Amino acid sequence: xxxxxxxxFEGRVQGVGFRWTTRNVATSYNVAGYVKxxxxxxxxxxxxxxxxxxxxxxxxxxxxxxSLATRKSEAWTQTGEIQDHFEIxx
Length: 90
Known about the structure:
The structure is a single chain. The chain is an alpha+beta fold. The protein is 27% helix and 42% strand. It has a single domain (2-89), classed as Alpha-Beta Plaits (2-Layer Sandwich), CATH 3.30.70. Strands 4-1-3-2-5 form a 5-stranded mixed sheet, with helices on one face. It is globular. The termini are far apart.
């Protein structure tokens, strides 16, 4: 069974290329899921896959974009249904 994490980034994270950068980072990792802007000004990232790969992916996103985020929350769960790619959702 695969894992998934839902991350919420707060701060100056919209209008700065956060979604595009996150999607580009995802191409280097074996993760599926999405990134999208939320109406409250935050950005949501949902990543699915094997836990070590998800951890490496989230660390890379934080290295690229973490300076723009003032806060990050995360919630881990198990999932039986895996998406087949990583996308930007609108």
